[in-house]
Every structure is written in structure tokens, then in C-alpha cells.
Amino acid sequence: QPWSVVGGNTLSAIVGIASVNWIPDPAVAAAVAVGGAIGLMFVARCLHPPGGAAALLAVLTHTTHLSSAFFPFFVNSLLLVLAGAAYNSFTGRRYPHVQVAQPPRADARFSQADIDAVLARYNQVLDISRDDLESLIQQTELESYKRRLGTLHCDDIMSRTPITVEFGTPLQEAWALMHERRIKALPVVDRTRRVVGIVTQADFFRQLDLAHHEGIAGRLRDFIRATRTVVSNKPEVVGQIMTRQVRVASADRPVVDLVPLFSEGGHHHIPIIDAEKRLAGMITQSDFVRALYRAVRPEN
């Protein structure tokens, strides 16, 4: 950073010049200059390793005039910073690096207080800001997730041979399947096992008047009960209430690609299809969470 370069070199030069003027013995002056320069840079928060060399150079060249701290040390350091800024601007990188404190994330696995506690126990000086350190840890954690989950594909975690229904399956039969098997969604397939829709418990309840909770069980029974007459004024089969726009994923797709679908897309069930576009399995939120846990648990 500019302050580390300019401040570190200039302050170290001042310490070196003062050591030459106050200490006759060059060996002692050199030791005091380097040690004093490092201490001053710590206090001024401009630790710059070449600053110690600047202090030593002032002693070795027997520089006694304080104006030398301005030129060549200050001026040359400033020119060096300007050259670095010009080069980084030309190559599309930002310099000086601006440290921006990020607001704490609700889903973060660690907090700023955790970092402070570890740094306090470490009890060493790091030439990096806490904000940059936190960003590095978060990015490292993200790369670790990608590496661990990148080797998993949908066919590794999906539930195979899922229970399905067809377009003409009666509502009562579909509801009974979900109740007996304790599942919340059924893929709707055609005769070639290609997905044409999906029916969930929400699709059933969407047909009811949920503004009034009284008697909802009775209304559900009436809704799924088959009509004995030829003409019906309510849906009778799955195809009439199913969701037609279904998000599917291929069996060889990396599991990590499903993160946005489950976390932000509002999906709870993702049908998995094979190379011939036929239903091969199903991934639920439970399957996905189980895969995440297995990927990040310490023994892995």
C-alpha cells in the first residue's frame, strides 16, 4: 500500500540519519537504526521490510543531512508508488487496494469476533488487514465447497426409481400414494417415462379455499373423491392440477449447480433425467442437505 512504501522508507531514513548523528560507532548505529526503524514502522502502521534497508543505507553512506529523507528517499518512494499505480491501471487492476468492510452475513460460518479472537491468541503481526483476511477465508471456504461438491453428480445422491403417476391418474390415488409413502411430490410421466409435470401437496391445497381453516380435511376428501357422473365441475385427474413447467436436471450434472435452485429458486424436488430424457431419479432438499453434510464434515 502507498503508506507502507512512502511512510516506511521515509521514516526509516529519518531514523537512520538520526542514528548517524547521535551514535559515533557505525556498527552500533546500524543496529540501532534498523531496530528503531522497525519499531517506528510498527507504531506508524506502515511496516515495509525494505524500510530497514533504507535505515541501514543511511548509516552505511554516513548520511547526516535530514533533507536526504525527503530526497532521495521520500521522492523516490513516491515515484515508485505512482509507477505501480500506473502499471496496475494499465493492466486493469486496482491500486491502491481499497479496504471495504463487508457487512456480516447471516449465513456465515464465522463472525468478525471469531477472527479477532483467533488473532488475539495468535499474538503476531500480520501484514494484512482483518477485512482482507476475512475475505480470503470466505473465498477459501467457497473454493473448498466447490472442490468437494464438484466431484459429486446428481446420480450420486438422487433417489432412484421414484414413485410416479401419469396424466390420467385419479386424484384420490395420487393423494393416497403420497400419504402412504410419506412423500410430498410425484413426478408425472408419459408412457415413455418422460417428465410432463409434477404434482405436489401444494397443488392439492391450492384447489381449496385456505382462507377458512374450518373443515379443511372434509373439503380435501370431497375434492379428491371421484365424481360418479359423466360431467364434473372439479378436477378429477392429476393432469388437471399438476405443475407443467418442471425444472429438471441431468444425471451427470454436478450437484453444486443445484445450489441456486434449492436456496433461491424455491424448489423442493428436482426430477433427474438420463441421456434419453427419461426419468431416472429424484433429488429432494433432504437428499441435497445430506450430500452437503457428507461433503463438509471434518472426517472428509
Which key phrases capture this entry?
single chain; 300 residues; four-stranded mixed beta sheet; two-stranded antiparallel ribbon
Q: Tell me, what's the shape? A: rod-shaped
Largest sheet: 4 strands, mixed
Tally of DSSP β-strands = 6
Helical segment tally?
12
**Taking all residues together, what is the mean pLDDT?**
87
Question: Mind telling me the CATH class of the largest domain?
Answer: Alpha Beta
Span from first to last CA?
A: 39 Å
Q: Which residue ranges are poorly predicted, with pLDDT under 50 across at least 5 consecutive positions? A: none
How do the helices and strands line up, and which of them pair or pack?
Blueprint: H1 2-22, H2 26-44, H3 49-60, H4 70-90, H5 112-122, H6 130-150, H7 154-157, E1 159-160, H8 171-181, E2 185-189, E3 195-200, H9 201-206, H10 216-224, E4 249-250, H11 259-263, E5 269-273, E6 279-284, H12 285-296
Helix pairs in contact: 1-2, 1-3, 1-4, 2-3
